[in-house]
Design brief:
GO terms for molecular function: kinase activity. By secondary structure, the protein is α+β, with helices and mostly antiparallel strands. It has nine helices and eight strands.
Length: about 190
Amino acid sequence: MREPTPEAVKQIFDRYFPANVRIWESFAEKLKTIAYARNEIIKPCNGKENHLNLLIKGSVALYVCGEDTETCIHLCYENDIFSDYLSFLRGTGTPIQSVALEETVVWAIHKNDLQELYTRSTAGVHIGKAIAEVLYIRKQTEQIKLLTLSPQERYLQLLQEKPEVLQRTPLKIVASFLGLTAESVSRIRKRIGK
């Protein structure tokens, strides 16, 4: 199992926030490696999020839990950053649940450790800014796609960005993430021949 290093953390963040590897030294020291089994709940519905996670191996889905439904709001694969960030920031539970879709390994930093890094140095402030920017950019991009692209365009863009999605994620979860039914995704796949 790969251990967290400043270089590995930098590689994960670089596509959003390129920074000197030294910024990530104290962050990497605080990371804990945690393994989850397939279908294991990482953070339960209405539970409190205490960690920010870097996904090293496997895949994770984040769901909003309703009365009788679960709607997938994010799919994560290797080198993604995930958290129920609303719960993380507010310190309260939310109806968001995160679940390992495969055998999964994350590097997790506890909220208290992250807060300590923020107050300890300017590098910690840069880390906090990077995390907030990564999660904000991702969520805004997903919202814009949902509101401006057709279902077929959303499907094709997902395949382009995450080609492994159909091999690693059940169709009903992919459909939920796209805001569609599994039948609609099947029709799109048949129409485009993928």
